[in-house]
Amino acid sequence: MLKNWLKIALINYKKNALSTLINLFGLTIGLTGFMLILMHWNDEESYEKWNPKKDQIYTYQAYYKKDKAYGGGISYPIAFNALKRIPEMEDYLLFTNVGGGYKMATKYTTAFQQDGITVSENFFNFFPFTIISGSAKGALKTETSIAVSKQTAKKLFGTTNAAGESIKFDNKNYIVTAVYEIPEGNSQIKPEFIMSAAGQLKDPNDQWGTYSFGAFFMLKKGVDPVVFQKKFKRDILQLKAALGAKGSGMTAQKYMDLYGPDDVLLTPLEGLKLHAKASWFGTGDFKIIMILFTLSVLIVILSAINFINLKTAEASQRAKEVGVRKAIGGTRLSLMMQFFLETFMICLLSYILALALTELLLPSFNKFFNKEIRLNDWHIFAYSLAMVMVVTLLSGLIPAFYLSSFKAIETLKGNFSRSKHGVWLRNGILTLQLVISSFFIIGGLIVHSQVKYMMNKDLGFNGKQIMMINFNENSPKPWLKYERLKTELSKIDGVEDISFGEAVAGSGRSSDSNMDYQQQSINAKHGSMDYNYLQFMGVKLLKGRWLDPALASDTINSAIVNEAFVKKFGWTDEQAFQNNFQPGFDNKKYKIVGIVKDFNLKSLKYKVDPVIFFHYKETDWKRLYVYNIQVKLKANDIDGTVNRIKKFWGTTAEPGYPFTYYFINKEFAKTFEEYQKQQTLFTILNAMVLMVALLGLFALSSLMIEQKLKDVAIRKALGASDQTLIFGLTRQFLWITVIAVFISIPICYYLMNEWLKDFAYRIEMPVWPFIVSFCVLLVLTFAVVSIKAYKATKVNLVTYLKYE
């Protein structure tokens, strides 16, 4: 019986070669896209899986109700008191200076080493790296303790047996207490060296509001993190608010409302990469992955729709076969099993071809996402095979049920082809297919418009020809180093101007603090700078004046703010110049001397934050954070000037340190890369969808028009013109297209509006993509169907009318 079914299947595949190839092509493309996106998602979810304590470790994130935002910062007293007061908490790990680098000297060599981290002493309790020299116990107990990776040990000492060795950097001598091996597998916590934060953790009840650390919390086994979060808010955040409000004349609740944090969120360690709201290690975009995954599933569904449509359209060709098999005793179940087998064979072959195509496309896919994914995870095979089973079920059940339901007497009479049976089913499924196609066209055009809008928006600054150079800020007096470098760099041919700014567009590095005025408080970013920095960046002054080196007050308490700062306080420009405010990072009040036009420091996805700018000498501790020098180059010889600066840097400025630089306009452009990739992916998916849909439409129209050839012959014999016949044959498909587009419009409007809500700077929902989608689908449908319709008008009348 099985052998007979296979023979029948092969005969039908050959007889309907076009639809068979279209089904194979559509399913292969759909399954390939599904597997690639699934691999991407699986890779993003695989971070920190190696850690045996991952089920107990959570990353800390504070929620600020006033700004509706999450922050990853925590103070030492908050963490210390949480462990002391909440019994469900087992331990905490504090960290800072993530990714730091130093020029390290040993008795063997001197080399620059980056990717370090400064942590509290219990790091190896949270991240049990394999120790290959020394001991994890007490490895980070003192200020001069340091643990290094196997790679760093080989680089600095030529051996991994480096415990007890000495390293000198940052004007201190450090003792290597442990050499560890970084675990294999995806992880965001892969430091090349680990320093102790013991010197920063001396008084557990001082600086409650100094959020200079990130934190991981370890809860006891079986503890519900939601229960812990409630206790943390009640016992710790309210305690912090009560201590802050003491002596201020306000209630603890008022203090919490003004300064926060108001709540806490714990994200499991293994969800750090993809699900954390705020992270020191960078976050993924789960929403985009879900969108891509959903779209890949839609393509598979589209391919399944093609399958269903073509199989039901072939019904008239197989009606007599069904009638004969039923007449000789075939049961409905056996017929359904046969049709399921035919569907499964196509789906299985598509799955095998999709595996081969996935392997072929994987290098390009990895390059696009900057990954190293391999097709060796059994989960991918299992999930994709499960998808094949679902497609087989969807694509096989409807045609099998439909075909097996034919009555033997009706089909053997030979007039089944004139029946309207199944038309509503095919038309409904075709409408769904065109709805999906319309969604992709509209969505792709809106994504393209949003990305184009962001690329062309006036950013409020000019970063062209401005070279940003990072230097070693760990020197005793980095501001004096900047001033020396400024003098020496100005002598290099091709240098037009020089300045310093702490808050650099596109760098992601900035500080923020509370700004208080009477009973008001806002959160604002603060950027120390040189006198000329804002003019240097081409920022527009709206009111007031720039900082002036001739005025002593401009290094004491003068500040320039942006429009967002003034608006956040609810002031007029005149009020801004009259009202002195108290910044949380200083103990004196500041006065505003100038207001500048808003300009973007980070991605256009976010609103411009309130920012205060002031001279780096204005606050003692800010002088210690002068970390860059920015050089504007003359346009006539940029490459030559860069080479001269590079030579100066390696021989005079910082010998032994890497020369790291970038041009600010190009660095800011990287903030668009994520959305440009989304645009590219949407374009590719759009092309795939249209290709699958149009091929399916062509095959379906071919089969349906073939069933009407006798009607065409009769109408032609009665004198109908070719134009009339073509329109008559395509009219049904055009109406289906019109209905599909109108159904897709509200769906697209809602979904794309939700996507646009993620952008602070966005286009208004345009009308033209909906019109373009309507016109494009109408034209393509007419073009595809009319090809077959035109051929139908050339039928031989004798062939179809000789028996009439």
UniProtKB/TrEMBL annotation:
The chain crosses the membrane at residues 21-41, 288-310, 339-358, 378-403, 424-447, 681-705, 733-752, 767-787. It is a multi-pass membrane protein. Keywords: Cell membrane, Membrane, Transmembrane, Transmembrane helix. GO terms for cellular component: plasma membrane. Residues 294-405, 685-796 form the ABC3 transporter permease C-terminal domain. It is found in: Cell membrane. Residues 20-231, 434-646 form the MacB-like periplasmic core domain. One of its GO terms (molecular function) is transmembrane transporter activity. The keyword Transmembrane applies. The keyword Electron transport does not apply. PANTHER family: ABC-TYPE MACROLIDE FAMILY EXPORT SYSTEM PERMEASE COMPONENT 2, MEMBRANE COMPONENT OF TRANSPORTER-RELATED. This is Antibiotic ABC transporter permease.
